[in-house]
Amino acid sequence: MMKKKRNDILVTGSILTSVMLLMILVGLFFLPYDPETMNIDLKFAGISWRHPFGCDNYGRDIFTRVMVGAKTTLLVAVGTVGIGAGAGVLIGAFTGYFGGWIDEVLMRVIDALFAFPSILLALVVVSLFDSEKNQVLSLLFGSGKYQVIIALGIAFIPSFARVVRSEYLKQREMDYVKNAKIMGCGHLRIMFVHILPNILSVLVPTLMIGFNNAVLAEAGMSYLGIGVQPPDASL
Amino acid sequence: MKYVGKKILTMCLTLLLVSFLVFLCFTVIPGDPALAKLGTEATPERVEALRKEMGLDRPFMVRYGDWLISFIQGDMGKSYSYSLPVKQMLADKVPITVTMSVMSILIIIFVSIPLGLYVAKREGGVADRVIYAVNQVIMAVPPFFAGILITLLFGIVLKLFMPGGYVSYTQSITGFLGYMIFPSIAIALPKISMTVKLLRSGLVGEKKKDYVRTAYSRGNNTKGVLYKHILKNAMLPVVTFLGMTFTDIIAGSIIVEQVFSIPGIGRILMTSISNRDYPVVMAVIVSLAATVIVINGLVDLIYQWIDPRIRLEEQS
Amino acid sequence: MKRKALSALLMVVLSLALTLSGCAGKRQGESTGSQITIGIPQDVEDSLDPHKAVAAGTEEVFFNIFEGLVKPDRDGNLNPAVASDYKVSEDKKTYTFILREGVKFHDGSLVTVEDVRYSIERCADTSEGAPLVAAFANIVSINTPDEKTIEIVLAESNADFLAAMDTAIIPASNETPDTVAIGTGPYKFVSHAPQESFVMKKFEEYWGEKAHIDNVILKVCANADSIVMNLNGGAIDMYARLTSTQASQLNGQFEVLEGTMNLVQALYLNHAVEPFNNEKVRQALCYGVDKQYLLDMTSDGHGTPVGSSMFPAFGKYYMPQLADYYTKDVEKAKQLLKEAGYPNGFTFTIKVPSNYAPHVETAQVLAEELKAIGVTAKIELIEWETWVSDVYSGRKFEGTVVGLDASSLTASSMLIRFTSDSSKNFINYSNPEYDTVYAKAETSIDEEERTKAFKECQQILTKTAANVYIQDMAEFVALNKKYAGYEFYPLYVQDYSKLYIVE
């Protein structure tokens, strides 16, 4: 009974996800229209067979732009969570595992980061990573995008670090960790080979919520005018 | 006592770090307060004179030291753009943002905990599935869009409030609170979904544990077990989440304040960052940081209260 | 039991919310008398000192509180205000003003020649390096032969000096002008809560035609999406500078008035960098743009195409024919690029201040148009403050789309920025011919000769394709039909004193 219902949710979710991924995948090779070409006759054109979502204020096909925008948004989400979770796990692991002064210092830095408005962070990142000076990054993510990714990524570190730290605090007292120590495993090995797989059950949901938050945060940044640069589309 | 003393010391150190980082930011980001103020009418001479007046001609460390000393003495300086004391400016704005945050956290607690219990109890039922689906949708709505939707629904269609018709608390407390309900809902909505989801999965997970069976076998009824034992254990991640949410609301009120035309702390922060009005930015961020740190401390205490196994002093 | 308690609590909260929200539906009542609530795009982020305030948003509000010896009207003429009459000597070196009788400050005291002298001297003071009003550097002496006469003597003749005399007259007795605003205008300052409201009250003892509405409340509506909602919901009665899209979303309660922004929107090019130091490249860009198409795309065709650094409100100086100097011709543009050594086009970056949506839109359409001639324009949105420091002051840019307006209705305020050594010459335009013609215009006393020279300046700018000139943008003002009397000015000001309530 219960199993069946769980699957419902899983199936719905998988279908939605695969539709989105398929759209992005198709968008990499084929787009119905050029996402940037303007057409005055199609300004605010309504929904039609040729333009299933209608056209925007420049007469650009919205469906095409959604396809492109989905890619951008996915990129931002993956990049943001990548940076945030990467750094967050490292910091959380070290602080949680070792405790002591490392914990104190790093967690204070994390607290400081948490209190730091992401808008200011974004401005700093934008000025530090000037697109003209960072050709590599621009090529990798497209100009204007990676700055958003870096800023959001940094802003996401604290939440990951906190979650991971509290898990490490719990796990380090467990018997298997003590046994590993007795067996002479190095700290790094214990931290990342032994403990990390054990906290995945907590980390994975956090990552998923992180994706969700990253997408929303990017939308918020665009709303405040610090988003992806035009004519790039983002959802 | 020793623990509290240590906490306060580390808190002060964090604040010091935050203030230094913010100060450092200003040297990194483009834009100069004097230039920002004078705009396109700026002549090199006037910019120079204004920079002197603002004290920007002095070296970085001297400026920071000066700021720190006067801040410790309780003087937050004077706003560059408004020529008003920062303290006075913020004193007017703090009640607005605090009211909004408290209101939304109350809404979150009073809606999501009963709702979480309800769906957990009817796990797998129609209500559970409907709420699950609604939750998924709400979580995907960006805060500014939620704000716009709420304005449209409650403001334009139902006419429960006037969009943009913010009423100052100095004029009418009821009018002020009445207006603030709607932005608070906009903030609370996505957080409610998250809390319900967290609480539900926590409750469902705990339900299968041994102690629950023990409790049942001792003859407790379903409600007693659910409220007394399971809820307490399932609340742990929820409390963490709510603690983060509270800080999130305070630090992230910028967007909702923008949508609802509320002149709160977020708005002041946003405009002073873009005006490069450093005294105001410094004061706002340091106070925000202080609030965040205090709340994190409180969350730690609540943790300990819920689960005495977590000993906080342990790691000294 | 507990669940019941919880649901009861929920009910209480909900009903409280509903009662409270009923209260919020009412309009805030500031004080007695008629009132209008006006939305403004940015706060009056300045001190209340009219001489030190510089933001355009501040100046447009201060127009109602402060006045100079003369005051511009909606046709751009300078009329006597605090002065009742003025005389200009033949050589344009001596300006004599007669103080108007019985003009009172908002604190009730009479305006004296000493107040006038104080105000002018304050703005001419060079102890900080440069005077607050640039034109006042020219003043040799300020004489007050009797209690009604002020005589200002200049070192060099200046036919445009009168325009600078709209400098606010403030009382010498006010020791804290940055926090206490005392002027002579039709409205007096009441209170200012940062980011919240700026309140003004009608000045009953105003010397001229008194204002009609008792209280004016300015509210900051910074967000483009909420402006329309705030108007339709009734929170604000008026909003100036709407875009055509916003104006089309308003409901039937509003009258939409169309005027002009009085600025020159252009793709300003930095002449100090490659390839824009090449005249042919700049001309190619000009040939690559169809102004009317751009207007159709961004503002449903509203706006006036311009071809040089001057907008229609300037009347006799404005040359409408220059707008058609370059008409879109892709082949010619490509030919010019080839001659300049860029047969395959090039790539450059347009920096646009992100808070000005119309400029961002124009830049996007421009970039799209330039693709046809093989030029790739990348758009970089930056903050306004970054624009001021990097683009304007630092001159670090390739191209930028903004609108430049006039600080006063003198041709020089638009054209001085293109002289080689002007501190405002952020595009690094350098043309000896232009400098000569401009100097001739500036110093000439003969009106006809001046006008001719200023027109020649504009022609030079057009011919050398100094910038890709686009338009003077259309301005839409939404005014609730309960009110009327809005007047457009050729300057960046808002005159609230002319507004009245329709019976």
What does this structure look like?
The complex is a heterotrimer of chains A (235), B (316) and C (503). By secondary structure, chain A is mostly helical. In chain A, 72% of the residues lie in helices and 0% in strands. Chain A has a domain at 71-223: Orthogonal Bundle (MetI-like fold), CATH 1.10.3720.10. Chain A has helices at 2-29, 62-98, 100-114, 118-128, 135-141, 145-171, 175-182, 187-223. In chain A, helix 4 (118-128) crosses helix 6. Chain A is elongated and about 75 Å long. Chain B has 316 residues and is mostly helical. Chain B has 2 domains: 1-89 and 266-316, no CATH class; 94-263, MetI-like (MetI-like fold), CATH 1.10.3720.10. Chain B has helices spanning 2-28, 33-38, 44-54, 60-72, 86-121, 126-139, 143-157, 173-207, 210-217, 222-251, 253-259, 265-274, 278-306. In chain B, helix 1 packs antiparallel against helix 13. The longest helix of chain B is centred in the N-terminal third of the chain and has 36 residues, at 86-121. Residues 21-30 of chain C have low confidence and may be disordered. Classes of the chains: A mainly alpha (235), B mainly alpha (316), C alpha+beta (503). The interface between B and C is large, with 73 and 69 residues.
Compose a concise summary of this entry.
The complex is a heterotrimer of chains A (235), B (316) and C (503). With 235 residues, chain A is mainly α. Chain A has eight helices and no strands.
Could you give the topology of this structure?
The complex is a heterotrimer of chains A (235), B (316) and C (503).
Chain A: H1 2-29, H2 62-98, H3 100-114, H4 118-128, H5 135-141, H6 145-171, H7 175-182, H8 187-223
Chain B: H1 2-28, H2 33-38, H3 44-54, H4 60-72, H5 86-121, H6 126-139, H7 143-157, H8 173-207, H9 210-217, H10 222-251, H11 253-259, H12 265-274, H13 278-306
Helix pairs in contact in B: 1-13, 5-8, 5-10, 6-8, 7-8, 7-11, 8-10, 10-13, 11-12, 12-13
Chain C: H1 2-24, E1 35-40, H2 56-62, E2 70-72, E3 78-80, E4 83-88, E5 94-99, H3 113-124, E6 139-143, E7 149-154, H4 161-164, E8 187-193, E9 197-202, E10 215-220, H5 224-233, E11 238-242, H6 244-248, E12 254-260, E13 263-269, H7 279-287, H8 291-299, E14 304-305, H9 330-339, E15 347-353, H10 357-370, E16 376-382, H11 384-393, E17 399-405, H12 411-415, H13 432-443, H14 447-463, E18 467-472, E19 474-480, E20 483-484, E21 500-501
Parallel strand pairs in C: 1-10, 1-11, 15-16, 15-17
Antiparallel strand pairs in C: 2-3, 4-5, 5-7, 6-7, 8-9, 9-10, 11-19, 12-19, 13-17, 13-18, 14-18, 20-21
Helix pairs in contact in C: 7-9, 8-10, 13-14
